[in-house]
Design a protein that fits this description.
Blueprint (H helix, E strand, L loop, with lengths): L1 E5 L5 E6 L8 H14 L5 E5 L6 H9 L2 H6 L5 E5 L8 H7 L4 E5 L4 H16 L12 E2 L2 E2 L5 E2 L15 H4 L14
Length: 184
């Protein structure tokens, strides 16, 4: 079953993804959440509860069928995902949909930690201009280290997965000899 609703204080939208969408159509699900999201002037985050996250294409289709969530995306600073699915399967889809939001993966059992993290975005905003703004398209996920331990505290390094190409490499011509790799 799929449900889109606002938590009682009105600061966090909650998207629950179970198996199937139940008896409701996507329009019914969207309409039920749209009025609540439009009235939420303190909206700061989104919590996605999905013990088993849908495949990337199915998740993208679901997000496209919920325009109320797309319209509220600019107000969502943080997206907490509670799932036992590996983050590499769904984080790229969420980053594409919530471009200006931080996305963080929590285990399905870490409900309290996820709620605190999402709510802290609202507290930082209320603190005033001294509070740092969230980084665009930041992803923090549990990392699997070589020794099998999960490092939740450090998160990804700024240098992870960054490939820098030499500008000269793109401007090489066919008759030019690149000798940077030749032993002398």
């Amino acid at each position: 079953m799929i449900k889109l609703e606002l938590n009682p204080p009105g600061t966090v939208a909650c998207l629950s993804i179970g198996h199937g969408r139940g008896d409701a159509s996507y329009r019914d699900i969207n309409d039920a959440g749209a009025a609540q999201l439009a009235a939420a002037d303190q909206l700061c985050g989104l919590r996605i509860d999905a013990p088993a996250m849908p495949r990337p294409r199915q998740l993208l289709d679901l997000l496209e069928h919920l325009p109320a969530l797309r319209d509220a995306a600019s107000r969502i600073q943080r997206v907490a995902v509670l799932s036992d699915s590996p983050p590499r399967e769904f984080v790229p889809v969420l980053r594409g949909h919530f471009e200006a939001s931080e996305v963080r993966h929590f285990s399905a059992a870490a409900s309290r930690a996820a709620d605190q993290w999402v709510q802290s975005a609202n507290e930082a905003e209320e603190a005033g201009p001294e509070a740092p703004a969230p980084a665009a398209a930041t992803v923090v996920a549990d990392l699997q280290l070589d020794d099998g331990l999960v490092d939740e505290a450090s998160g990804p390094s700024p240098d992870d997965d960054i490939i820098t190409l030499d500008d000269d490499a793109a401007s090489s011509v066919d008759d030019e000899i690149d000798d940077w790799f030749v032993k002398s």
